[in-house]
Every structure is written in structure tokens, then in C-alpha cells.
Design brief:
heterodimer; A: 405 residues; six-stranded mixed sheet; 9 helices; 28 strands; B: alpha+beta; six-stranded antiparallel sheet; five-stranded mixed sheet
């Protein structure tokens, strides 16, 4: 039985002790812990406090702008949520890779190779990685090469391995990030936890963006920097949609670029889109930079508008669909909610926190551990796993073949 | 398809494409306006939220220091800023001590700074020029974008800051003055209230300790007096009542004076001791049991009958006439009635009349009443008589003995029972003192006596 506790405190060590104390009853059976801690904290002090209560268990996780738990939704940067896993719960040998800075794809391959060598190659994976490569100037560790690196190794049998994951950040402004790598605190690190052969993951992806343009073709792109759309400077195109350069400070919130999967002329289906947040715009270079370097020349994209009502409707739809699927199998050991930081009400302007709505709609008794993230990773339409932006990923991890208790 | 038709279709597609893009751009702007309006509304609610939550901290926090840290947390959460600091100016200097910081993670903050003639408010964004003041404050928070407010009266200052200019979508701006100054004002006020509350608690504790010491002293002192006094009373009684002893009648008369004065002194000391015990109520808890009020009334009247006869006043008893039971401390009820009847005898001239009665009113409030036709008191004198030792200072009663504690003791005892003491008096006509017991102490008939 996975035990979950959440708390909030401005003293990092005290917060660790506080959350740990709430899990003390389960400590004797604990074999590893998943911990997400508000980005304003000192991670070393938090971990010390937590270990005072939990002992020397491997602790995996890292910084988050906020948490979503049954009794606490907060993004002050001072909160934490921790799940403690026993020997019969999901989780196997933890694979750690500290070489993100040397190349994300290779790091992903090495990470996957460790999973394979531990005999966990075909199992669903929880992937957590350090999103911020450099604070000034801001540079991300992109998720797409990391996920691709994992898939290069894990998907060799032709069946995509489900990867659920998140790029961790400390705050809404992509200020920094840090990781708990099982033993301590790390930078430029990725952690993969095989969830076990006996477990499966029921995933629902909740969106919140709607097309606001006709299709445009990327005619020049270098990595994540898009220079041209339909032969025009991408900066110019985006400014037209924003209504002027004055709106640039809110660019990363205002719109995304969406690539529709499948039939481009099929009716609107939010699940058909892979969205990319726009990290910044450079007038001198005429470019915009998106979160991931996974678009290429010839990719047909649309400018997408955030739609707060659609976001909340999507949560209603997604939770209902997840609940229906969950009801057909075993009770989940854990429900993870990995929520894009931009969806928080303080950033999106939504009338209600989508995490709060999810918490209300998710059936009582399901153990919920949620947090705000920089990038979400989940299987798209039962296919391969992809990095996602502006989504909320609900992933219920349950034992295969069980019946609902 | 003809070329004309293809051209027409192409134009039509272009038309829809333009309209689609135009509508899409409008949608984005509308969405942004809506979000901006929501964020602005959120900012305007921030000060209200600060006030609500900060004042809520007062009761749950032990010290001003912890309170200040709590307020800073609320400020940081409400503004969604990265870091915050609360500073206090050292008296008459340009030095500021940094009382609290938040959001520094593993970064070690400075402990003090120097600010020459600090502004009441300033901010930094990419449009503002860095000066000595903003340099100092950004150095404290170690982030480039800050909001600052300073109150010269209290010497307190507050700063919040961000690493990114577009924190939650926008830079700091002049309108944020209301927010940071509001936060600082709330902080100053809440800290002031907390300090007052702590001072009040300390003063109350000191007063309680002083009162306890006073009561303990009186109790000890009275006990020390009573021990030799009992010897005086005993031996003077022996001399007075020994007609065949070595003392002649004159000395036996002197012994009688010694005995009477000693008895009076003993009564005074007993009252003082009783009052001291009442002041320290925790040491004298009530022993509450159902009792028959009429029986207590009759018993008290009987025990004081000879004193009344000696004083030349008549005494009558009017019972409730019902089988009501009173939940009360028997010893306390007896003492109250004894004090009141004793006072009535003392203050009623020869030929006067005393009535001791009990009645159960329609709201089941039980009233024990002692009425006399004595000297009475004016309205101004009643509160004096109710004050401990009050009658000693009263010229009106100067011709009568006593400690002046009888009525205060009665009031303390009836209040311990949750009831009230009511005095009605007219000079020259008499006094009526009523003891009103709360209705829930009037138990139904049949409740057994202990």
C-alpha cells in the first residue's frame, strides 16, 4: 500500500521532518520514496529532515513549483508531497543518469540500457529529469531527445514501452531545477524507475489548447529555434497573433504551436495535438524558441490559443474516462497527476485550479500524488510516449489482472 | 474544373484562411485580456487576503518573531514572488537588520545592510535605473527585480523580489505600491497587536501572581494570629467563668472584656482568612450537592437566634414551601446566610425586625433573601460595602464593628455558584440582600440529599 503525505513549511529541514513524520507508521515496510519539494526550499536540508524520519531509503524526485494532494493544493514553493512504497508496490531498481549536460539522447540511451541490464526493459517507466540546463541565459534540457534515447533502446521489440514522466522545475518562471537521484541532490540528472512487470499504467492526457490559425508550414528551424513559418520570419508571424510586441512578456502563456497528429482535416480533437510552449522570441534573429527541438522543416503547425474553459472541461472528460477505465481493473496503487505549471490559475487566469477540480472528481480512496511540472511525458493515443506541453497527465498505476476491491 | 472555378476556389480558401486567422488572433487576445483581468483581480484581492490571513496568525503564534515569519510567508505566497525580506532599522542609524528572509533555499542571506535615506517605496524593472538604494536592496534579495516599502515610524521595511522580470506574466509596476505598502502596514499592525497581547498577558500573569501572594500572605498571617488568640480566648474564658478562682469580680470583668475583644478579633481574622481563600478560588473548590434550602435557612436562623435576642431584634423565617432542591455547596450557603443575617443583626437597632426568606420564581431561579429594618445605606454606599474592606473606610458604618468582608465574601461565593448578589437599601429604612441562584441549580423535588 503506497502511503502519501503532504505538508507545507518555510523551514526546509522541518518540512522534511513533518512530511516524514506523517509517513512514520509505514516506514518499517518502505523500500523507496518519491518526493517532490517546493522550489523555494533548500533540497539538502529537506532531504536531511526527511531521512531523519524515513531512514536511508532511496528518495527519487526533486523540485516542483507546487503540489496537488488530497488535502493540500499549493504553489507557494514551500510545500512537499512524498509517497512511500513498500515491497509489493510499484518500483524496481532505480536507474540514474548524471550526464544530461553531455547530450540528452545519449543519456536516455544509457538510462534505458541500465533498465535493460537490471531486467526491467519491458516495464512501464517513471521518468524524472532536471529541466533547466542553464539559468542564465536560460537553456533547457529538452525532453524529446531524452525520451527518444530511452525509446531507442526500450522500444526495440516494436511495442512502445509506456513512459510516464516530468521535467522538473523550481518555479513558474523556469528559475532552476534540482533532483533527488536516490541518494542525494543532483543537477543535470535523469532518473528512471521501472514500475514492475506486474503493473500497468492507465493514462489520460488532459489538454486546454484550441487552434487559432490555419495550418502553417515550418520552412526553417534549427533545433528548438523556429526561424520561418510559411517563408516568413516566425517572430513576425507570432507578433501578429499577439497583437504587438507589448504582449511579449506573456508570450509563453499566450499561445503555443500545435502539431496535429493523424488526419489534419479531421474534426477538432484535443488528443490529436502535440503542443509546444514558446519559450522566447528574438526580434533580431526573427525567431521564436519552442520548448522541444522535435519539430522539423515541413512540419505543419497551427498557432494554438489557451482556453481555460476547455482546460477545465478536459479535466472533467479525462477524469471521467480514467475513472471508467480504472473501474474495470484493479484498484490503483498510485494516481499520479503531472500538471503543466502554466495551467495553475495564477498563470493561466483560470477561474478554478484544474488540480482542485481533478481532486474533487477523482473517486475517493484513490491515492493521489500530483505536482506542477515543466514538461509532461506520456504515451500519446496508446502509442509511443512523447513530451507534452500544457497538459495534465493523470496516470493510475495498478497491478495487472486485479479486480477492483 | 475550369481555371476560373479553380481561381475562385483558391480565393475562397484564402478568404476563409484570412478570416480564420483573424478570428484566431482575436480569440488569443480575448483570452489574454480575460486572463489579465483575472490576474489583476487576484492582485487587488491580495491585500484583502493578506489582512485576513495575517490577522488570523495572531492567535496561533507565540511570538512577534514567529508572527513576522508567518506574515512574510503569506506575502510571498500572495504575490507569487521568489524571495522576500523583512528589515528593521537600528534606532537613529542607517543600518538595517534583516529580521527574516524567505525563498533563499540554500543561499545564505545577509544579516544587515546600510541604506542612506531610504525611500518609502521603490521598484526595479528593466526600465528603471539602478541607484545606490536599489543596488543595496537587490543585493539583499540577490535578485534583480524588487519591490520595496519602508515605514520611518516603526523602522520596518519589506522587500519582495524576482529573478525573472515577467514573473507571473508582468514586471513590477507603480500600481504595486499599494500592494507592498499594504503588506508592510498589515505587518506593522499585526506585530504591534501581538506585542500588546504579550504585554497584557505578562501584566495579567504578574497581577495574578501578586494576588496569589497577597492571598497567601493573608492566609498565613491570619493563621499565625489565630493560634495565640485562641490561647488568649481560652484563658480569659477560664478566668471569667471561675467564680472561685484567685481573681475578684473586677478582674473577672476585665477578663470578660479580654474575651469579648478577642472574640471580635477572631471573627475579623476568620473573615480575612475566608476572603483570602476565596481570592484564591482554585484552593477552595465548591462541594456541590443537592440540599434543602428551607432546612438550611431554618438552621442558620436557629444558630443566630440568641445573638438576635441579645441585640433586641426579632427574626422570622419564610421558607419556599416547595420541595425544591438546590445544587450548591452547603458550607458556602450557610456561610452566606450567616454573614447576611449577622450583618442584619449588627446594623438593625433594638426593636427592629429581620426576615429570612426563600422563594422559587417562575423561571426557577431560587432566591435566598435577608431583609432588615436597620440603618440602611445610600445608593452610593452600596458599591463601597461590596468592596473588600470597603466598609472600614465608610463613615456611614463607622459606629459598627467588622472587617467589611461579609458582603464581598457573599458575592464571591454566590458568583462561584454562577449566581448574583443583589442589594437594595434605603437609609433609615433597612436593607434587603438577595442571593439569586441560577435556574439550573434548582433541582426537581425528590432529588435526594447527600
Amino acid at each position: 500500500m503506497v502511503e502519501i503525505a503532504a505538508a507545507k513549511h518555510t523551514d526546509s529541514r522541518e518540512l522534511g521532518r513533518l512530511v516524514g513524520a506523517r509517513l512514520e507508521a509505514a516506514v518499517s515496510a518502505g523500500v523507496w520514496a518519491l518526493a517532490f519539494c517546493g522550489g523555494k526550499h533548500d533540497p539538502v536540508a529537506f532531504l536531511e529532515g526527511l531521512r531523519q524520519k524515513l531512514g536511508d531509503l532511496p528518495v527519487v524526485g526533486g523540485s516542483v513549483p507546487g503540489v496537488i494532494a488530497r488535502r493540500l493544493i499549493s504553489y507557494a514553493g514551500f510545500e512537499a508531497v512524498v509517497a512511500l512504497f513498500g515491497p509489493d508496490d510499484p518500483g524496481g531498481p532505480i536507474a540514474v543518469e548524471h550526464g544530461l549536460a553531455e547530450g540528452e539522447r545519449e543519456a536516455g540511451r544509457r538510462l534505458a540500457a541500465r533498465l535493460v541490464s537490471d531486467g526491467c526493459g519491458g516495464q512501464p517507466v517513471l521518468l524524472l529529469y532536471d529541466s533547466i540546463a542553464c539559468r542564465t541565459p536560460l537553456r533547457l534540457h529538452p525532453a524529446s531527445p531524452l525520451v527518444q534515447g530511452l525509446r531507442d533502446v526500450l522500444d526495440r521489440g516494436g511495442v512502445p514501452v509506456p513512459i510516464i514522466g516530468s521535467g522538473l522545475i523550481t518555479d513558474f518562471n523556469l528559475g532552476d531545477s534540482w533532483m533527488f537521484d536516490g541518494t542525494g541532490v543532483s543537477k543535470h540528472c535523469a532518473v528512471a524507475v521501472p514500475l514492475g512487470e506486474a503493473f500497468e499504467v492507465v493514462t489520460e492526457i488532459m489538454h486546454g489548447c484550441r487552434p487559432a490559425s490555419s495550418f502553417m508550414t515550418i520552412t526553417r528551424i534549427e533545433g528548438a529555434e523556429v526561424f520561418e513559418l510559411d517563408g516568413r520570419p516566425a517572430f513576425e508571424v507570432i507578433i501578429e497573433w499577439l497583437g504587438g510586441e507589448a504582449a511579449l512578456p506573456g508570450l509563453s502563456l499566450a499561445l503555443t504551436l500545435g502539431a496535429k497528429q493523424g488526419d489534419p482535416f479531421a474534426p477538432f480533437d484535443e488528443n490529436a495535438y502535440v503542443n509546444r510552449l514558446i519559450l522566447g522570441a528574438d526580434r533580431a534573429r526573427g525567431s521564436i524558441t519552442i520548448f522541444e527541438p522535435d519539430f522539423c522543416v515541413g512540419e505543419r503547425v497551427q498557432v494554438m490559443s489557451r482556453d481555460n474553459q476547455l482546460m477545465l472541461d478536459s479535466v472533467r472528460r479525462g477524469v471521467a474516462a480514467a475513472a471508467a477505465r480504472i473501474a474495470q481493473g484493479g484498484k490503483p496503487a498510485l494516481c499520479l497527476y503531472i500538471n503543466c505549471a502554466g495551467r495553475a490559475s495564477v498563470r493561466s487566469g483560470a477561474e478554478r485550479e484544474d488540480g482542485d477540480l481533478l481532486r474533487d472528481l477523482l473517486p475517493e480512496g484513490l491515492p493521489l500524488l500530483g505536482f506542477y511540472s515543466g514538461v509532461e511525458v506520456a504515451p500519446m493515443a496508446e502509442g509511443p510516449s512523447l513530451p507534452l506541453d500544457w497538459t495534465g497527465v493523470l496516470a493510475a498505476v495498478r497491478r495487472r489482472g486485479d479486480q477492483w476491491i | 474544373m475550369t481555371e476560373t472555378r479553380r481561381m475562385r476556389l483558391q480565393r475562397e480558401i484564402e478568404y476563409y484562411r484570412r478570416e480564420c486567422n483573424d478570428l484566431g488572433a482575436r480569440l488569443i487576445r480575448l483570452q489574454e485580456e480575460q486572463s489579465r483581468a483575472f490576474r489583476e483581480a487576484r492582485r487587488s484581492r491580495t491585500v484583502a487576503r493578506l489582512i485576513r490571513e495575517a490577522y488570523g496568525l495572531i492567535d496561533g503564534t507565540d511570538s512577534p518573531e514567529a508572527l513576522a515569519a508567518g506574515i512574510l510567508e503569506i506575502v510571498l505566497e500572495s504575490t507569487q514572488c521568489d524571495r522576500a525580506a523583512l528589515l528593521l532599522q537600528r534606532d537613529g542609524t542607517q543600518e538595517f537588520d534583516i529580521l527574516h528572509v524567505l525563498g533563499f533555499g540554500n543561499d545564505v542571506p545577509p544579516t544587515s545592510t546600510t541604506l542612506r535615506e531610504p525611500s518609502r517605496f521603490f521598484l526595479t524593472n528593466s526600465s528603471t535605473l539602478l541607484n545606490e538604494q536599489s543596488h543595496a536592496v537587490t543585493a539583499i534579495l540577490r535578485v534583480p527585480f524588487v519591490l520595496w516599502a519602508y515605514d520611518p515610524g516603526s523602522g520596518l521595511a519589506m522587500a519582495v523580489g524576482n529573478a525573472s522580470e515577467a514573473n507571473v506574466s508582468r514586471p513590477f509596476e507603480a500600481e504595486d505600491q499599494e500592494l507592498i505598502e499594504g503588506a508592510l502596514s498589515v505587518c506593522i499592525d499585526v506585530l504591534h497587536r501581538k506585542r500588546l497581547e504579550i504585554e497584557l498577558q505578562r501584566a495579567t500573569a504578574e497581577a495574578t501572581a501578586g494576588r496569589d501572594a497577597h492571598a497567601n500572605f493573608l492566609a498565613g498571617f491570619s493563621h499565625e494570629l489565630r493560634t495565640p488568640l485562641n490561647a488568649i480566648l481560652g484563658f480569659s474564658e477560664l478566668i471569667r467563668q471561675a467564680p472561685d478562682g484567685p481573681f475578684d469580680g473586677r478582674y473577672r470583668e476585665y477578663a470578660g472584656y479580654i474575651y469579648d475583644s478577642g472574640s471580635h478579633l477572631l471573627q475579623l481574622i476568620t473573615e480575612i482568612l475566608e476572603f483570602a481563600n476565596l481570592e484564591n478560588a482554585a484552593t477552595a473548590p465548591l462541594d456541590e450537592k443537592p440540599l434543602d434550602p428551607d432546612a438550611v435557612l431554618t438552621s442558620v436562623a436557629r444558630s443566630l437566634q440568641s445573638l438576635a435576642e441579645e441585640a433586641g431584634v426579632s427574626m422570622s423565617v419564610i421558607p419556599t414551601g416547595t420541595a425544591v432542591r438546590l445544587l450548591a455547596d452547603r458550607r458556602a450557603v450557610r456561610q452566606m446566610l450567616t454573614n447576611l443575617v449577622g450583618n442584619a443583626i449588627k446594623f438593625t437597632p433594638r426593636g427592629g425586625r429581620i426576615t429570612i426568606s426563600a422563594l422559587l420564581d417562575e423561571t426557577r431561579v431560587l432566591v435566598l433573601r435577608v431583609a432588615d429594618t436597620g440603618v440602611g445605606m445610600s445608593a452610593e454606599q452600596i458599591p463601597v460595602a461590596l468592596r473588600p474592606f470597603g466598609r472600614v473606610a465608610s463613615a456611614y458604618t463607622s459606629g459598627y464593628g467588622g472587617s467589611g468582608l461579609g458582603l464581598p465574601i457573599c458575592r464571591s461565593l454566590i458568583e462561584q455558584h454562577g449566581g448574583r448578589l443583589v442589594v437594595e437599601s434605603v437609609p433609615g429604612e433597612g436593607t434587603t440582600v438577595s442571593l439569586l441562584f441560577p435556574a439550573d441549580r434548582s433541582l426537581p423535588a425528590g432529588t435526594p440529599d447527600p
